[in-house]
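Here is one chain, start to finish.
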Amino acid sequence: MTKPSHARGALAAMYAGLALTVLATIATYVDRSTTHLLADHIRAGYPAYPQARVDSAVTTYLVVLSVVGALGVLAWLVTAWAVTAGRRWARPAVTAMFLLGTGVGLTGLLTKDTSGTTGLPPALGWAGMIPCLAGFVAVALLWRRPRLT
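Its structure:
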């Protein structure tokens, strides 16, 4: 049986979101070994921190963002499977995961820490929001009414 075109499009958006989630998660590790945006951001917010404390904060962020990324990957895979399998709960589950993922992304992007600045540098915060665009497309395609021909 062939999937309706809106389901195929939604699955494509979901796999794009999966790839974007993996890339956003990897970006934190690339930053740690190259640009040091996160470390510089923490250092700017807490100039009195010794290097060891900055490194500890960076490691904590990497662990948290890795767990969020892994849960995001799991959510993409489970919801893509549900859409592929034609489960009745797929559309509400995709919608719920989109809302949850967007909430987590906005939290990372906008939450200020005790220094008065956001916890994440803007570049990493926005990187965490990019997979939400694919989630929005997937939700829109799944809830679209099929065309009558």
